[in-house]
# Entry
Amino acid sequence: MNTKTDGPGFDFCAFLDYDKSDEVRLYEIGRYVAKTCYSYGPVIRPRGILHYVTSGKGMLQIMGKEYSIHEQQIFFIPAGISAYYIADSEDPWTYCWAHLGGSAMLELFNECELNEMQPVRDVKLREGETKSALQRLMDDLFENYEREYFSIAKTYELMDFLHSSYARSEEETNESLQLQYVRTVIKFIQLKFSEPIHVEDIAMTCGLNRSYLSRLFHEATGSTIKDFLSTYRVNMAKNMLKKTDNTIQFVAFAVGYSDIFTFSKAFKRITGMSPSEYRSSPDI
# Structure
């Protein structure tokens, strides 16, 4: 971990690389007190970066558009997108930032419709507040950034703030009830794949007839629920076979199979090779 506090305009910067989880990653945080007309870019970053303007004003250029940004607004620059921003000539901004990643984080930005086409949002202060909830959250993060799990917990709080502030409710989306059932099936499998679950169990969770749920799922995904479950289990097993020394029998039980024969048969059907062949293959 590296920190910087004495560069031009820098108030604080920490390079964290908290990336143990595939779902939520925190790479860097910082605060910048900009001088008049200080500019950055155009630049393309390999990771998304969220900015929170705590005072002053500035301008963002992204996707051929300009956005005038002021105190108590956030702006998001996705990974792989060119952006340029500059502090105001009379009231230069101060902003916090966080480099963020992970599958859950990307899904959240999608739910909030924070993207290169809609990069700016207002941060609302409650009546009587002098500091926003987001400001208090970022202050806590900056004061305790060396504590990895604390920092990740604060990142989840940040996600909750974004979701509660900007994500559309189910009533506001065009997502059909059928698609919601499909999402429930996928989440159920992701949570319960290591247990001896069956399609009947999933249908009961959704409160639907098995045949009807199976038809909905197949129409939406092109796969049967049973095949999706088998494929998910095998993908989890592939990861374990490559990254651990556990026996094949242990792996089979760990991903929800009651015997090694059924597991090996499913594994070969999906991958074209046996579990032992997959483990010993150096190119996969």
Q: What stands out?
A: The first helix runs from residue 103 to 111.
